[in-house]
Amino acid sequence: xxxxxxxxxxxxxxxxxxxxxxxxxxxxxxxxxxxxxxxxxxxxxxxxxxxxxxxxxxxxxxxxxxxxxxxxxxxxxxxxxxxxxxxxxxxxxxxxxxxxxxxxxxxxxxxxxxxxxxxxxxxxxxxxxxxxxxxxxxxxxxxxxxxxxxxxxxxxxxxxxxxxxxxxxxxxxxxxxxxxxxxxxxxxxxxxxxxxxxxxxxxxxxxxxxxxxxxxxxxxxxxxxxxxxxxxxxxxxxxxxxxxxxxxxxxxxxxxxxxxxxxxxxxxxxxxxxxxxxxxxxxxxxxxxxxxxxxxxxxxxxxxxxxxxxxxxxxxxxxxxxxxxxxxxxxxxxxxxxxxxxxxxxxxxxxxxxxxxxxxxxxxxxxxxxxxxxxxxxxxxxxxxxxxxxxxxxxxxxxxxxxxxxxxxxxxxxxxxxxxxxxxxxxxxxxxxxxxxxxxxxxxxxxxxxxxxxxxxxxxxxxxxxxxxxxxxxxxxxxxxxxxxxxxxxxxxxxxxxxxxxxxxxxxxxxxxxxxxxxxxxxxxxxxxxxxxxxxxxxxxxxxxxxxxxxxxxxxxxxxxxxxxxxxxxxxxxxxxxxxxxxxxxxxxxxxxxxxxxxxxxxxxxxxxxxxxxxxxxxxxxxxxxxxx
Length: 629
Hints:
Blueprint (H helix, E strand, L loop, with lengths): L12 H22 L22 E2 L18 E4 L63 E3 L26 H19 L10 H16 L10 E5 L19 E7 L10 E4 L4 H13 L9 E7 L19 H8 L9 H17 L33 E7 L10 E4 L4 H12 L10 E7 L51 H16 L10 H11 L24 E7 L6 H9 L2 E8 L2 E8 L2 E11 L5 E7 L5
Parallel strand pairs: 4-7
Antiparallel strand pairs: 1-2, 2-3, 5-6, 5-7, 8-9, 8-10, 11-15, 12-13, 13-14, 14-15
């Protein structure tokens, strides 16, 4: 019997495509798997960099050998831990035994640098500790790596110097001491030329400007229309020492005339001083070497020259440990040249007595002297000072019982506050005699300072008393009490007669060849100028002998006299230029300032400068081969 046929259903298309798609997929996967491919750069493990990553090298001693000291160097063959070798698995090594990475801050900033190939080894700093080496297995020996000997070759560098070390070696104690000494001597060289910082009044400034300008405009011609123009030099006067000075230097102001071709006229006037002769001389040198532009007509300039000095950034006390602290305190107390000259003292005394008389404190304007009184301000170490202290003068009013009324009045200063205070204590401790009425006394006290035998600042050692102490109690010589009175020295002991004669001759020649000393070529005119303006307060016989109309004759003991057509304030600079010697204040003589002339720091002459004429517009220079006092 024939069965009836069932109706056949139609298969979907995807059922026909599925088998070939599976076969195609398997074929593509197999093809991809059999294609060789290189690993990515991220999968590559670079070999360790000996300098960047470090290779921990640990010595393993052979059996039976005791471990040597950590200070001994190992020979050339050492054992390396597995995790420190290229390709090592590092299994079983703790994280603490891995070599530390170098701090990023210590790496060179150049990313393209080439690793160093030098064989030198930087020794490990004392006190640093290495990681403990990992324990090794007795059954699995560590592979042996031969490392080259990295110790420096003594033959190649016998002195053991680090030639490639970029860090400079620290200066030695001796080098620092010498540098501090040089710095301090440079400072005292400037200090010794301090003249005070008084500024001219506007009236004085205007008068001096007009006098200088008229000296050219009166010539007429191309100078008739001159007008003073301001000019500031770009470069200041250097002050390399950096130690605090007794006063901040002023800006130098100099009047100069520049000819039409740009050349500088040599008649330069210092309108305002810096307060220091050294700086004034440096300012003039800067002006003389400045390149001025050419112009159709001559030009007049007021040139400003500043000093490279900052009072807020100077050093004090100086870093010169060889000197005692008391010496620096003495320098710090320097008050300047005011009230230090004999003329100022006489004027102050007269004013004081007049005031006392007007107030009926004394009956007559006269001062008594204390008979038999002898005292001096102590200065036992007698270390040389930049400026010599003068004797000090004090006035006191004493009642009938001999008691001082009020405080002592200072009539003359030593220049140093420390010495003035000691002198005041001496005066106020005097037992004055009784009298029938109040009396005025004037007491003069010298300072125990000997400029001839003082301890030079260039000395390697200083003899100090028990009371003196250097900074931090640093003392480079045993204490030696030397008494309050220095031994008297023969006057002029440091002078060289032959050099004195040469200096005097050369200075006179320079004066006669210069317009400032032209009067010395005409003695008759020089005497006429001298007679017309000699100051009444100064005894002329101290400096000049009786002269005829043909010549100037110096007083007995004086070596030479020269007239300078220059204000007395500026005369020391001219004397320094003419005589090649640096003037240093040395007190006064017969009411006129006295200077010590030094050549390379050695005293050779003394010079008196006597101002005469209107406003001391002229100066009589008197040279002495020995101290006239």
